[in-house]
Amino acid sequence: MRLFDTLAQPHCAKTCEWPVRTTQRPDQTEGNDIGVPSDTDEAGFTLLELLVVIAILGLLIGLVAPAALRQLGGARNSVAHQSIQRLGEVLDLYRLDTGSYPSTEDGLHALIERPQDAENWNGPYLKDNADPKDPWHHPYIYSNPSERPGHDYDLCSKGAHEATSDRAAMICNP
């Protein structure tokens, strides 16, 4: 009887089970006598598997990074608007104390150090002893009187791209 003939017939008539064949090579063992796996049982990732994982991670980063950067840019714009609004409130306090807004020459530094011509100055009006900067670490642009109708002063940020000639790209006090 050949090997194929025994595989084609049930091994036992009562249970009708087929013989179980293993794919383990004769030189592979579960381990040696002290329970340490043999050299042929090493587990790990193939180079192809690692390359596939790296490619998938690269695609995910390529898809997620632009959206995250857009959100970061939007958040900085929002912080710039809020900071300009808060600085406007501080400038209003300065005006209540001194009777006028700081001049363009004195700028926002007048909120930190008393200008020579400012009577009843009750500052410093800012906690930090440095001129305020926008979220992109650029100094705010302040001018008094305003170049815009209906405003007492201009307080603007150049924004992310340092817009100087394009007033529409600048973030200014409302």
UniProtKB/TrEMBL annotation:
Tell me what organism the protein belongs to: Asaia bogorensis NBRC 16594
| Transmembrane helix in keyword set | yes
Question: Sorted alphabetically, which Gene3D superfamilies does this protein's record hold?
Answer: Glycoprotein, Type 4 Pilin
Q: Establish whether keyword Transmembrane helix is in the entry.
A: yes
**Gene Ontology BP terms:** protein secretion by the type II secretion system
Checking PROSITE patterns in the record gives:
PROKAR_NTER_METHYL (PS00409)
Looking up Pfam families in the UniProt record yields: N_methyl, T2SSG
Q: Which GO terms describe its cellular component?
A: plasma membrane; type II protein secretion system complex
Alphabetical keyword list? Cell inner membrane, Cell membrane, Membrane, Methylation, Transmembrane, Transmembrane helix
| SUPFAM superfamilies for the chain | Pili subunits
Family recorded in the similarity comment: Belongs to the GSP G family.
Q: Which InterPro entries match?
A: Bac_GSPG_pilin, N_methyl_site, Pilin-like, T2SS_protein-GspG_C, Type2_sec_GspG
**Protein name (database record):** Type II secretion system core protein G
Looking at the record, the residues that make up the Type II secretion system protein GspG C-terminal domain are 69-173
| Topological category with respect to the lipid bilayer | Single-pass membrane protein
Compartments (UniProt record): Cell inner membrane
User: Which residues are listed as membrane-spanning?
Assistant: 47-69
